[in-house]
Specification:
It is built from 14 helices and 41 strands. With 927 residues, the protein is of the alpha+beta class. Strand 27 and strand 28 form a beta hairpin.
């Protein structure tokens, strides 16, 4: 004890107390101090450089002008030491003028100025920091250097590398001084070989096959192409244990084998040679491989015995049992019980019992192999919503959010309605995706609710993060739809904070140009009626393909009857321009279901590249004209479209879950309309989160039909053509269509010549004699289908947040010609076309349908992968699409007039040869 004391100052010979790390001598020192009753004149902190004195004093309970209490001083020593800021700490007590001065001498720990990871390859620094945070290591830049925390960091680093398959990693460190009072911490890492799972074998399993059990293992898989990308082929003991418990055991419990015994897996790590795919494909390498053998004892199968509930006052047993979904006598299914818990929680939450707690108890009857289930409920109070607040909405008005929320203040707090409300808010697209945790629910457990002590109040604060309401997008590139194009778009999806949508688009290109202005009011007059309008001007140039023209001209048969090109090289087949407007309104008729009605007027004109195309496409009676032959100039369309839609899709731009169904019936006709036809259209979409909600599986199906009425046909240009980035991605826009082989005739002037090759002169006129010889030419014209079916599926995998993702896809579709009456030429035009019968050409009879080429009705399909990039101000992704077409048109047809057969290909390369795969660029989504 004496070595801890020094005599200082006054004649009373007060002791100076020096406190070091060991607290055992403190009892004796403080017993001496306990004999005094002096006041504390002051408290001083000495030796500190970075740590403010006030920070230290905050942890000290002793105060000026209070009695010097040894017990309190001992507590202060422990509290300051627990701050972990100091390497050394001692307390001295000196005489002051009016009392004692308590001095805390500290020696600060050095700060970590830099952390280096030498040899770390399998994990990023970000992953390391995230792991430190998860495990609460407390090691970081500008934190005090503590050897114990460094050792803890090594343990966590070892675990992280083990998760990456580096089971043999070795980690050391050193800490070098960095004046003043700093440390540079360096971890030296030898990762060792990567250990992957080569083989998993189960033994003793009779209920499930090895394949089924391996599939149930969630976190670890045998090495394969997919598992290499997902990282599940790397061996990790914790992942193996988790897969066996949450995968294999859960799988057996689905069939009532609740006493499954999983013995300790036998792990055999070997050095093996294997063929790698990365970075050099098919290279033979050596590495560590794990062979896992798992012995199982399945035990007996159990069934559900009695199911009882206690503590339930809100629902009868019959209702609870129905919601639980477990019936007496059926095979016990642990997964069904888990889902039943969730369903029970929902029905209690719907009645405001947010603190409902179920305590399940399973009683095994081994003799009868039954599981008797008893649920003990603690229902708690029924809560009412007292206050609903919103934070984070700086632009969006509260009423815009509140009108989407189905839970009202003063009513029972219904958690199911809150979940639906979050979905409705996400569908607006105004905010980042809202989740349940964004609703801060604070029950007031003290205040009585509106119905007395058995009820309570709850306050809910909904935290939102607004997206930028205004966006200006610039786009440009090459697309199968728009050709070479450039465009600018301005849109606001929350105009003035009231939820209105304003959009203005200008786009110009080699094949397409558009000017569109639209406005949408989601709540007209504060009622749930959506209204709006759009004005537009569009021009579209349709081409069969310059490559196709190259091919035809290369063989000399791309010309019409008069010798002019049938497929104009470098020019469109036809160009259509249109102007119009649309007004629309819709109203919800039940949750997520809306009925809509729109009306539009459109005026269009179509010009053709040559007289052969004009002759063919105007030969159908689709307008009421005196000649009976259709005209494509100034065609008026008056269209009314009722629609019915249902949608639970959670986000309009980047959907990850939900489904939608749309049905509409487009009716074109009436007094101001030149054409008469109807178009029913059905569409279904489905999105489902995969891989722990990281990825998304999406599907879409479409059905469409078109037919004229009143004795008229639908215009060829309005019939169904498919292909392109919004339908079947590996084909050019509108390139998939039924075709008809149509023959035309022209009379070619041929000068009559004598045997010597000289013109024969007509003696009456003195001019050469000219004979007119018929020349027949057949060509496969696009006629469009009247029925269309398309199916798309894609798997979206985010790589960098929502900014960059890849999406493998498969598209398939087919067109039909079911109503041949719609492809009959008008009687006045039939004589201009010819059919080949009995070895000769004869004029087409009125009412004869065009001869559709059967091969052009085949199913088309395309598969491949998209690379999608979303820029901050553009909601639609830029897409680079690699495609391969397993099914595409690849045939030749004979020409009735003789000569080389016609090639019928869907895709052509620059030389006119068939092309099955390649790249495309586009903006937007397929669905």
């Amino acid at each position: 004890m004496e070595d801890l004391m020094q005599t200082k100052g006054l004649s009373t010979a007060w002791l100076v107390v020096v406190l070091l790390f060991i607290l055992s001598p403190l009892t004796g020192i403080f017993s001496i101090l306990a004999q005094t009753e002096d006041l504390i004149e002051d408290i001083e902190i000495r030796g500190n450089r970075r740590v403010p004195a006030d920070t230290v004093k905050f942890h000290i309970l002793s105060q000026k002008n209070t009695k010097l209490d040894p017990a309190v001083l001992q507590r202060d020593f422990k509290a300051v030491w627990a701050m972990s800021f100091f390497d050394d700490l001692k307390i001295e007590i000196e005489d002051g003028k009016t009392g004692k001065i308590v001095i805390f001498w500290v020696k600060e720990r050095p700060l970590i100025r830099e952390i280096k990871y030498v040899g770390l390859k399998s994990a990023t620094n970000t992953e390391v920091l995230d792991k430190y945070k998860e495990k609460k290591v407390g090691l970081g830049m500008e934190t005090p250097f503590e050897p114990t925390k460094v050792q803890r960091a090594i343990t966590v680093l070892t675990e992280l590398l083990a998760e990456k398959g580096r089971q043999y990693a070795k980690i050391t460190y050193d800490a070098k001084d960095s004046p003043p009072n700093g440390k540079i911490l360096t971890f030296y890492i030898e990762e060792g070989p990567k250990v992957k799972v080569e083989k998993i074998d189960f033994h003793g399993n009779t209920v499930y096959s090895d394949k089924q059990l391996k599939k149930s293992m969630k976190y670890i898989k045998e090495t394969g192409l997919i598992s290499m990308f997902t990282g599940k082929s790397t061996y990790d003991q914790q992942k193996l244990e988790g897969s066996l418990e949450l995968g294999v055991r859960a799988k057996y419990q689905e069939k009532g084998y609740i006493k499954l015994l999983i013995k300790d897996p036998k792990i055999d790590i070997r050095d093996v040679s294997h063929t790698s795919l990365f970075p050099i494909p098919f290279q033979t390498k050596k590495g560590k491989r794990v062979f896992i053998d798992i012995d199982l004892e399945e035990g007996p199968q159990y069934r559900v015995g009695e199911v009882n509930f206690t503590g339930n006052t809100q629902f009868r047993k019959e209702i609870l049992q129905r919601v639980l979904g477990v019936q007496q006598g059926e095979v016990f299914n642990g997964e069904m019980v888990r889902k039943g818990f969730e369903n029970l929680k929902k029905i209690y939450g719907a009645k405001g019992f947010i603190n409902w707690t179920p305590v399940p108890r399973q009683e095994l009857d081994d003799e009868n192999r039954l599981v008797n289930i008893v649920f003990e409920f603690e229902e708690g109070k029924q809560f009412y919503l007292r206050r609903l607040d919103f934070v984070g909405n700086t632009t969006t008005r509260d009423k815009v959010i509140r009108r989407e929320v189905l839970v009202n203040e003063g009513e029972i707090y219904n958690t199911q309605l809150l979940d639906i409300s979050l979905l409705r808010l996400n569908q607006l697209g105004f905010f980042d995706t809202l989740k349940q945790e964004d609703a801060d629910v604070k029950p007031d457990l003290k205040a009585a609710g509106p119905e007395g002590e058995n009820t309570g109040w709850v306050d809910v604060t909904l935290k939102v993060k607004e997206k930028g309401k205004n966006s200006i997008g610039f786009s440009g590139g090459v697309s199968g739809y728009g050709g070479s194009f450039v465009g600018v778009n301005y849109s606001t999806n929350n105009f003035l904070g009231y939820g209105e949508t304003l959009d203005f688009t200008i786009q110009g290109g080699t094949r397409q140009s558009a000017y569109i202005f639209s406005f949408t009011e989601p709540y007209f007059k504060d009622r749930p009626i959506t209204t709006g309008f759009s004005l537009y001007h569009r021009r579209y140039s349709y081409r069969e393909g310059d490559q196709y023209a190259n091919y035809l001209y290369g063989y000399g048969y791309g010309y019409g009857a008069g010798g002019q090109p049938l497929v104009p090289l470098g020019n469109e087949i036809f160009a259509q321009s249109s102007n119009g407007f649309t007004i629309f309104a819709s109203k919800p008729i039940r949750p997520f279901t809306r009925f809509g009605l729109s009306y539009g007027i459109d005026r269009s004109s179509t010009t053709f590249a040559n007289s052969d195309y004009q002759l063919f496409y105007t030969a159908f009676q689709f307008t009421d004209t005196f000649s009976g032959i259709g005209s494509y100039t100034g065609v008026m369309r008056s269209t009314i479209t009722p629609s019915l839609t249902y949608s639970t899709i959670n986000n309009p731009f980047t959907p990850t879950s939900g489904k939608s169904y749309s049905a509409l019936f487009q009716f074109t006709g009436g007094p101001v309309s030149d054409v008469k036809y109807y178009k029913p259209y059905l569409e279904a979409k489905w999105f489902h989160p995969m891989n722990k909600h990281r990825n998304t599986l999406g599907m879409r199906a479409q059905f469409a039909f078109i037919s004229g009425y009143g004795g008229l046909s639908a215009p060829i240009t309005d019939r169904w053509f498919t292909g392109g980035e919004d339908s079947i991605r590996g084909f050019d826009i509108r390139s998939i269509s039924p075709r008809a082989l149509v023959t035309t005739k022209t009379l070619t002037a041929v000068t009559q010549r004598d045997p010597y090759g000289n013109p024969v002169i007509d003696p009456t006129t003195g001019s050469p004699i000219v004979n007119y010889v018929p020349f027949y030419n057949s060509f496969p014209y696009y006629i469009g289908g009247d029925t269309q079916v398309i199916y798309n599926i894609e798997y979206r995998i985010p790589i960098i947040g929502n900014s960059f993702s890849i999406a493998p896809f498969f598209d398939v579709g087919k067109l039909w010609v079911l109503k041949e009456s719609q492809i009959r030429v008008a009687p006045q035009a039939a004589s201009q076309f010819y059919v080949y019968e009995n070895g000769q050409f004869s004029p087409m009879k009125p009412g004869t349908p065009l001869p559709v080429i059967p091969e052009t009705l085949m199913v088309r399909s395309s598969t491949g992968v998209e690379f999608q990039v979303i820029l901050p101000v553009v909601n639609a992704p830029f897409r680079l699409i690699y495609y391969y077409n397993p099914n595409q048109l690849d045939t030749y047809i004979l020409r009735p007039e003789g000569g080389l057969p016609y090639p019928l290909f869907d895709n052509y390369d620059s030389n006119g040869a068939q092309k099955r795969h390649g790249f495309r660029f586009s903006v937007g989504r397929t669905f």
